[in-house]
Write a structure and sequence with these properties.
Layout lengths: L1 E6 L8 H12 L4 E6 L4 E4 L3 H5 L8 E7 L3 H14 L11 H6 L4 H4 L7
Length: 117
Amino acid sequence: MLTIQFLCPLPNGLHARPAWELKEQCSQWQSEVVFINHRQNARADAKSSLALIGTGTLFNDSCSLTITGRNEEQARRALEEYLQHRFIDSDSVQPTPAELAAHPLPRSLIRLNPDLL
């Protein structure tokens, strides 16, 4: 059994979108992955979005993932990388350049000469 300790970096807590993304990452592995919110003392199957949401995880909660199974070492490395570098990005959806071009701003806003991000 391997463990990854982390603080929840999500400003809005673990809600539907980041829970789904975390579930997708954990579902790639044959190993059992359990999410633990230490503040709430809540455990959840990390391969279930609803179970993850049910842990009531908030910003800066102390959390961990425990990984048990055949490919636990590979899963630990991949999930640790995901939690450190990409998990926080799952809290918001950034529009792609194609989406921005497909939905131009109304004329009233274009006249203000905004800087688009």
